[in-house]
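Reviewer comment 2.1 asked that we show a complete input and output for one of the modelled complexes. We chose the magnesium ion case, as it is the one discussed in the main text.
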Amino acid sequence: MPLASAFVRSGKVRDIYQIGDDKLLLVASDRLSAFDVILPTAIADKGRILTGLSRFWFSETSDIVANHLLSTDPEDVPASLTGGDLVLMADLRGRMMLGRRAEVLPVECVVRGYLSGSGWTDYQATGSVCGNALPSGLRESDRLPEPIFTPAWKAPAGHHDENIDFERVVELAGDRSLAAGMRDAALALYARGADICERAGIILADTKFEFGVLPSGELLLIDEVMTPDSSRFWDAGTYEPGRAQASYDKQFVRDWLEARAWTKTPPGPELPDDVAAGTRARYIEAYERITGASFARYLSEDVIAR
Ligand SMILES: Nc1ncnc2c1ncn2[C@@H]1O[C@H](COP(=O)(O)OP(=O)(O)OP(=O)(O)O)[C@@H](O)[C@H]1O
Ligand SMILES: [Mg+2]
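Response of the prediction step:
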């Protein structure tokens, strides 16, 4: 199949194809990972939900920073690669992004508005997170006085990402103004996202952005943006600091997994139909609450975006 000839690699979620010298085709699969294990059961349309949300955010934030998205229309994939195959094009629809290819900066640009996960761990040990000193006496999941930039080194496969301070970002980016540009863009993107989520009754506790640089030197927001896979979304209605919060999207499947004798090592168990359907419903609900648009409509649009 011609598309296979353009295949570059598979990430945990996306399959990546090279289109010419300067473009990439990112295809989001329906794979679901829980407790860092990719489960054998796919969640139907999950990749479309991730792509639909990213597309929404790219459009809502293009005034803050340029982004890689060129098109989500399968017609824009060169015919030499799709072979005009209608089944292939229907499968790509809604889950693909054609993007400008950039040199990826090896920094996970995390912004936190709340104290959770590795931020909470670091704070308990040091009273600060990635060089950001914080007031004493904060509880787990507390809202921070203001959002903070808490970058991590995007470690090569097989290593764990490692929290770093701003000076290390400068070293990794190779340029101070580029590093400052990433930090400032990440903070502005988080502020915009948190605001839109808040109106939907969702707390954007933290999120991770990736940036790249074009040959021209321009900074570009790449990858996916403010999806359930790259963010902690909490339901504002049940938020209560002083304990860990249920994540909006995956808690349902995590609860089911916790109730089993599974040791959280591969292979994970197959999900029963009702658990897969319940998980899908939560992802769809996140999409609909945040974008204010119907997911059924997203699926049925003949041209998702031009
Ligand atoms: N515009 C772009 N230019 C170059 N690379 C990009 C671009 N957008 C996304 N990427 C890369 O494509 C990959 C997306 O695949 P996916 O999200 O499945 O990967 P991952 O498992 O999260 O990350 P990785 O495989 O890097 O650990 C990421 O490695 C990301 O850095
Ligand atoms: Mg990713």
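The pocket of adenosine-5'-triphosphate (ligand 1) is lined by residues 11-14, 16, 24, 26, 68, 99-102, 104, 210, 212, 222-223 (CB under 6 Å). We note this here for comparison with the apo prediction described in Section 3.2.
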